[in-house]
Structures are given as C-alpha cells and as structure tokens.
Amino acid sequence: MNQVHRRIKLKNHQNKSQIHTHKSFIINIPKIFKFAIIGESFMQVTASAPGKAILFGEHAVVYGKPAIAVAVNKKAYVTVQKREDERIHVDIKDLKLSGYIDPENNEIEIESRENSKKGILNYVLSAVKMVHGSAQGMEIQINLDIPIGAGLGSSAAVTVATIAAVSKFNNMNLSKDEIAEYAHDVELEVQGAASRIDTTLSTYGGVIYLSKNAEDIVPLEINWNIPLVIGCTQDRGNTGELVESVRLKREGYPEVLNPILNAVEALTNDAVISLQKKDEKKIGELMNINQGLLDAMGVNTTELSRMIYLARKSGAKGSKITGAGGGGSIIAYCPGKIEEVTSNLNTIEKAFNVEISKEGVRIEVND
Ligand code: PMV
C-alpha cells in the first residue's frame, strides 16, 4: 500500500455512559463535556457531512479482517440560528420530525406525530451536549439527502454536521480530529458500541481501508471517480442482530465460516490494488465474490438479491450488499452503465448514483 499518504492510529474507547430510553421518549445522558463559550455566537452556521458506503469486507471486519469504505456525496446539512428564547428546537423536515431538546435536563420533547425515525434525535441531543455550554437558544434545521437506516451512515453524518455547526455557532474552532473524536463519543453513547467507519468518513471524506477491528484506519488515495449506484430496499436490517447472527453461524460452523472470513480478507486486499490500478474487471469480480460470501454468511434477502442480479443484468460489472444486509442497501459498480442500472433498479426500489465525497465535514458561516 505505497499510495497511502496518511495513517491515523486510533485509540481504544470505552463506552462512557448508559442511556435510558423511557416510553415517553425522554432520554437521560450524563453530561460529559462542558465548554466555556468565548464571545458572541454567529447569526447562522451551516455544516454538511457525507454519508458512507462499504465497498468490501463488511461483517468480516468485525473479526479483525480489513474493509474498504467510501464517503458518498449524499449528505446531512445542519443549520443553526439564534432563537429569542433559551430553548433548542430541532426540525427535520425530510422526516416530518420536530421537537425540543434540553441538554441541561437530557430531555427530548417531540412535537410531531409518532415517528419511527425519532431515534435520530438521540444523536442530535448527544451531539449538542458535547459542544453547547451557553444559555443561547438555537433553532436547528436538519436536511437530509441520505436515506435513514439504509446502512449509509445517516446518523454519523447528522452527528458530525451537528457537532460542527453547533460548535462553530458557539465560537469554538474544533479541528477535524476533535470533531471525529466527539462524534465517535456520541455514537458510543447512543448506540453502546460503534466502529469508527461512519464517523471517520463523515468527518474526513475520501476512501478508507480499515483493519484490526477497525481501530487502524488508513486513507487510500484513489484518483478516479468510481462509478457507483446504490439501491435501497424498503426493509431496514438491524446491524446488531445481523452481526450476532454471523457470530452464531461462526460459532456453529467454525471450519466453514473461518475460511469464508479469510477469503473476504484476501479479496479486500486484492481490491485495494485493483482500485488503485483502476482494474474495472477485477473490481467487479471481487465485488461479486464478496457478495457470494456475504450470502454464505446468511445476511442476504430476496429483495437484495433481486436488485443485485438486476444491476448485473443492466450492465454493472459488480454488485453486492453494502453494510450489514438483512435489508438496507446494495451497491453496484457501473462503469459506462450508470443510467441503465439506476433506471432499471428504480423500477423495483429506490436507486441513485453516488460519487465519492473527497470533502468531509464542511462549515459555512453567515454573519
Ligand atoms: O449497518 P452498516 O451499514 O453500518 O454496516 C455494518 C457493517 C458491519 O461490518 C456488519 C458491522 C460493523 O460494525 O462493522
């Protein structure tokens, strides 16, 4: 991997706190950080952060094998403005979800109707708590062009953009390293466990190679635009349950599953070289092999399979599940065939072209 230009060695993180979610959806998160706010806050700050897609190695990465993931140009946008009162109001129009968050009392008060996506507000509250130390009221507007719960890193993108926007609004100049660190802390707090894949890509953008249980993250220099199409099924796979199902399968059939995980490792390492050489045929074949192995792990579904084969029939050189599977999304590698693959997949599910987002989190100030 001679083209690797930067290496981030990441330290181990302990889960800092327990979250108690009550029926009324009031959550309780112990305070972790308190910042002194220096000077006046800005009038309006907007931050954006990209989502992600895993190209190779999902599930195997849980067992210390490598994976390759990319930041995609589907983003979360968070705009913060002053309010006259001291309350913090959050509005996510794309989800028809709005309410007040109270960092002092660790409470979320939802004003919209019952909403299955309300969990995203846990991330917003936890992110605000990290970087909000003043009594200044805020209006937080969130716009999303990443589908929620599709394995495309929407919660990390919202977390990173919220930390970036609220910190800047409060006159703090956080480095990208600090934003990534706080975002990872938020994911640990809200989810109990989290790898750094999503928060790293939302913060820094680009392409990454992960190894050793995702504690070692290496940016990859890929100097061409990988033509990718994402297709999202209606079903939402539960990552925790799918990881557990693979663990049980490995426990039940170690002599079958371990060679499968080793094969994923080998193909992922081959894929690094193929991506760097832009070897279209090999990239596609390796994706298809990876898909076969994910199927063998038991994380495929009929809907995912339909899209995977339709993408190949429409001209994709490779297609596979991206992320945990069991629902969620597929990714197809489509040199010269983006239009065909996208429109054919759109006849059965929602599909769109994505490009690699070289840029990670971005902040704009309107004073
Ligand atoms: O559900 P997603 O898209 O965030 O993907 C999870 C990827 C796994 O390898 C299955 C789990 C993990 O933590 O790496």
UniProtKB/TrEMBL annotation:
Residues 122-206 form the GHMP kinase N-terminal domain. The gene is mvk. It comes from the Archaea. Its cofactor is Mg(2+). Keywords: ATP-binding, Cytoplasm, Isoprene biosynthesis, Kinase, Lipid biosynthesis, Lipid metabolism, Magnesium, Nucleotide-binding, Transferase. It comes from Methanobacterium paludis (strain DSM 25820 / JCM 18151 / SWAN1). GO terms for molecular function: ATP binding; magnesium ion binding; mevalonate kinase activity. The keyword Magnesium applies. It holds the Pfam family GHMP_kinases_C. It is an enzyme of class 2 (transferase). GO terms for biological process: isopentenyl diphosphate biosynthetic process, mevalonate pathway. InterPro entries: GHMP_kinase_C_dom, GHMP_kinase_C_sf, GHMP_kinase_N_dom, GHMP_knse_ATP-bd_CS, Mev_gal_kin, Mevalonate_kinase_arc, Ribosomal_Su5_D2-typ_SF, Ribsml_uS5_D2-typ_fold_subgr. The keyword Cytoplasm applies. NCBIfam families: mevalon_kin. This is Mevalonate kinase. Its EC number is 2.7.1.36.
